[in-house]
Structure formats: C-alpha cells, structure tokens
Amino acid sequence: MQLTDARKETFDHIELFDAPAMFTDLRIDRSTVPEGLFCYDVRGTGDDPGALYVIEPFVYVNHSGTIIGVEDYMLEKGQAKYIATHINFLGEEITLNEFCAKHGIEISEPKKGVLDSLRESREKAEKKPSIFKKDSAAQER
Asked: What is the mean predicted confidence (pLDDT) over 87-112?
C-alpha cells in the first residue's frame, strides 16, 4: 500500500459539514499532516467502492479517498461517520500550504513518521562503512 506525502499533493478543496477540508483519492501518510489538522480515510460502499460514503480513522477495503480538515470528529478505531450528503466540492484544487494560508492555519512541522523513518534509515545505511570491505593490505599479501 503506497502512502502519499500530504505536503506534496494537490487536493480538491471541499467543505465537510460546513467546515473547510481537502480531499484526494490517494492514501495519505498521516505523519506528513501538520499538527492541528485531522486526517480521515473515506470508505465507499460494497456496491460502489468509489463512493464518498463514510469517514473512518483508517480504511483498508473500499478506500475511496482521504480527507484532511480542521475538524476533529473524534472517531476511534472501528467508528465511522456518514458524509455522503455532507460534502461539498468547491471547484478548486489546493495544496496543503495554500489551504493553511487561506484558512489561517499555522503550519507546524509534521510528526516524524513512517516515510521519514525509512528515509533516515536508508541514509544512515548509505553513510555507514561496510564491515565487509576487504583490507587492501591483506589483498596484496
């Protein structure tokens, strides 16, 4: 399952329950979402997996998108909130930085997460000298 960095994505600007939010049909890495914003996955229905039916903390099956917004719907694992008639697409695309500027949200550093940890581990491994390098003096003997 591929996760997308929210800081590099372009979203659809929406309102969810009359509050500003953004939508993408991709899966967003939660660690790239700044503090103060809330991220939910959208689940479709069995008949229409692409429908925007409910939001949940995380969706594996029938994932139809991800919403990032200013409202905390306080959903615990296993809980869902019906959104099908409460979502309004505003007809514009917007980046995370543009969204925050438009709605007066101060952007904080995102939480360190999966993508950052993997990147750091890879960088450390590339810098670390290999213990398997042959001693050039031993090779000459």
From this structure: 87
